[in-house]
Amino acid sequence: MNTISVASIDDTVPVIEANGGTVVVPKMEVGEMGWVAYFTDPEGMIHGIWEIKHAG
After folding, report:
1. Which residue in 47, 46, 50 sits closest to 29, CA to CA?
2. Which residue range forms the structural domain that includes residue 29?
């Protein structure tokens, strides 16, 4: 499974869906590190997207 770092999961999910992807695990917080979500591409492969939590 690939995990892709993105600036914003909230901004990335609509792009994924517009291109035939389906979110299978919605955005969830991972402690103090950031957020992750998982989606399938049009061929059914699962991928993760990761947004780092910035200090401040």
Report:
1. 50
2. 2-52
Neighbours of 50 (CB within 10 A): 15
* Residues 26, 9: Cα–Cα separation, whole Å: 10
pLDDT-based confidence at residue 46 (cuts at 50, 70, 90): very high
Domain count for the chain, please give it. Answer: 1
* C-alpha to C-alpha distance for 55 and 41, rounded to whole angstroms: 31
- Residue of 16, 7, 18 whose CA lies nearest to 47: 16
pTM, two decimals, is 0.91
Q: What is the pLDDT of residues 19-33, one digit of tens each?
A: 999 999 999 999 999
CATH number of the domain to which 38 belongs: 3.10.180.10
